[in-house]
Amino acid sequence: MKLNKVVGTGAQATVYCSGKYAIKLFKENYSKTAIFYEALINSIIENTELPVPKTYEVLNIGKQMALKMDYIEGISLIDCILKDRDNTETYLKKMVRLQVEMHSKKISLPFSLKDRLKNKIQGNKDLSVTKKEKMLTILNELPEGNELCHGDFHGYNILVCDGEYWIIDWVDSSYGCADGDACRTYMIYSLYAPELAEMYLTLYCKETGKEREKILAWLPVVATARLSENIANEEKKIMSWINDDFK
Questions:
Q1: Per residue in 190-235, pLDDT tens?
Q2: Where are the alpha helices (DSSP H) in the chain?
Q3: What confidence score (pLDDT) does residue 126 get?
Q4: 95 and 103 in contact (C-beta within 8 Å)?
Q5: Which of 70, 99, 124 is the last residue in one of the domains?
Q6: For 94-120, how does the pLDDT look when each residue is reduced to its tens digit (9 = 90+)?
Q7: What is the span of the domain harbouring residue 188?
Q8: Could you tell me if 117 and 152 are in contact, meaning their C-beta atoms sit under 8 angstroms apart?
Q9: How far apart (Å, rounded) are the C-alpha atoms in residues 155 and 128?
Q10: For the domain that residue 151 is a member of, what is the CATH number?
């Protein structure tokens, strides 16, 4: 199999185009369990009838493992906005409606949203025990829910192809309260495009009839969980959200 055309890169994998398929090639020695878990999650999500690429098999390519999926020839929603800023609100409205459709799905997944957040908070080695306990208390008091949550829903994980919108990268998906999933989207935009964050949240609340305060109630715990991902240049902003809760 020839893998010449790179169509995406990430911390743990590079995605190549191979004919009508995308080959997600993981780094050597990357967790075999994690790869099969991603294939499992992708296959479950396919049954929701949401616009998602299908996953066909797990491959060995040399000393590396890979996933074989549909190749979606499009550009990210963020790139659409950057090329057509006058229609930013139109793009975000479409994104919000797609997210609301996703949240309407009720399916069984291995982990709940709150379990995922709890594990990330507990696993952080840089936070004090006091802060961890405080965040876990806040998390415990937030609603459970049983909606389908993507876990990383933002403009780079939505591909636009011939007017159709496709959702990719489902490895962090879970079931839980849609408010927490929306808060994660708001947080990502706040970190990198604050003007999009406020527009997104306004549109999401208008579409769903929800109060922004109920969504932002998740911000301290969502931010604390994000801190464990060790993304460069995010710590100062994230700590401001965490520390605000202690005032």
A1: 999 999 999 999 999 999 999 999 999 999 999 999 998 888 889 8
A2: 32-46, 77-83, 88-103, 113-123, 129-141, 178-192, 194-208, 212-216, 219-227, 235-244
A3: 85
A4: no
A5: 70
A6: 999 999 999 999 988 999 999 999 999
A7: 75-244
A8: no
A9: 33
A10: 3.90.1200.10
CATH of residue 13's domain is: 3.30.200.20
| Residue 199 shares a structural domain with residue 112 | yes
The count of structural domains within the chain is 2
Same domain, 119 and 237: yes
Q: Which residue has the tokens 């299908």?
A: 54
Task: Kindly report the number of other CB atoms within 10 A of residue 62's CB atom.
Answer: 8
Query: Treating both helix axes as pointing N-terminal to C-terminal, what angle do 219-227 and 113-123 enclose, rounded to 10 degrees?
Result: 50
Whole-model pTM: value is 0.93
- Location of structure tokens 């011939």: 162
Question: Contact, 221 vs 121, CB < 8 A?
Answer: yes
* Angstrom distance (rounded) from CA 96 to CA 182: 9
